[in-house]
Amino acid sequence: MPQSATRALHTARRRSILLGVGAQAGAAALLALAPQATWAQGAYPQSAIKFIVPQAASGSTDTLSRDVANRIAATIGQAVVVENRAGANGIIGCELAAKAKPDGYTLLVGGTGTMAINSSLYNKLPYDPVKDFVPVAMFGYSTSVLIVHPSVPANNIGELIKWIKASPKPVRYGSAGVGSSPHLTAEMFRDVAKVSLQHVPYKGSTPSVVATVSGEVPMMFTGVASAIGHIQGGRVKALSINGPTRSPALPKVPTANESGLPGFEAAFWIGLFAPAGTPAEVVNKLNAEINRALNSAEAKERFLKLGIDALPGSPAQFGKILSADLKRWASTIESAGIPRK
């Protein structure tokens, strides 16, 4: 997807929430101003709702999911339970959710990796992110940040590119594993910046960030949430935010576009999906409740601490983002020559 189109979608989402453009966005805005009453007796939901999180407990996706679950449970009058089903790069949890009854009681917390990247990494993915699910609501974006060890003689992405090009051998970079978001972002950077890099995969985000902090690898791309503590502590340098706008969590760090690499963007979203066939009225009710939660000042402050930019919006807007990212990451994977599993 062209980066200008990604920026346009990002801007449109914000504008629709702030100005109330569109019937669905307007309805969500009105609900956000209404008293926090539970839904009418006899209406959905009549029992507990389950969020399947296809990642391990205590990670950023799990933490965010539990926060949203607690917030909407307070207004719908039913418990919202988070169930972690980690494994196989998120495939186990996604397959389980895809096969669930489409009644609104079993939902999936999906992200860019599980819903937009996996389909280009696996030959026999047991779920289809478009055919097997319907988008419910975006939770937010965790914008990619480029971090380097303090010894690297660069203070912005433009200076880093010059340093890499001057290196007599490919510069090593860390990632959370082959096909992970940090890996693909670095490959996109390599392609756009025309530099020579060597991939060093680790088993997860935490060890790859630790490797950058220690200087085992000089650089990596990762989510703001994974690196913000090390950035604030001065253990790594943040050279660029790789999204359309600066991150509220790191407002002093310029975007790649501002600091030497126009058009380079890699932001990663998290949101809620329902099994295909879930009634539209259920999807719309969930969307309105989640938007209400995300629009609260308390939630925005909480998300900020997690390195997440809360982005309320409609199911249709979320669907457009998914469609665009499926194409964008497929192109990146093909360009990087990553073989399917």
Structure description:
The protein is an alpha/beta fold and 341 residues long. It is 44% helix and 18% strand. It is built from 12 helices and 10 strands. Strands 1, 2, 3, 4, 5, 6, 7, 8, 9 and 10 form a 10-stranded mixed sheet that branches. Helix 3 (60-76) links the parallel strand 1 and strand 2. The two termini are 24 Å apart. The relative contact order is 0.20. Mean pLDDT is 86; it is low at 1-41.
Brief characterization of the structure:
The chain is of the alpha/beta class and 341 residues long. The chain has twelve helices and ten strands.
Keywords for this entry:
single chain; 341 residues; alpha/beta; 12 helices; 10 strands; disordered N terminus
Number of helices: 12
Number of strands: 10
Helix content: 40-55%
Q: Any idea what the shape is?
A: globular
Low-confidence stretches: 1-41
Succession of helices and strands: HHEHEHEHEHEHEHEHEEHHEH
| First and last CA, distance | 24 Å
Structural category: alpha/beta
Based on CA atoms alone, the radius of gyration comes out at 20 Å
Nearest-integer average pLDDT? 86
Walk me through the topology.
Layout: H1 3-19, H2 23-33, E1 49-53, H3 60-76, E2 80-84, H4 91-98, E3 106-111, H5 112-121, E4 133-148, H6 157-166, E5 171-175, H7 181-193, E6 197-201, H8 205-214, E7 219-223, H9 224-232, E8 237-241, E9 267-275, H10 280-294, H11 297-305, E10 309-310, H12 315-336
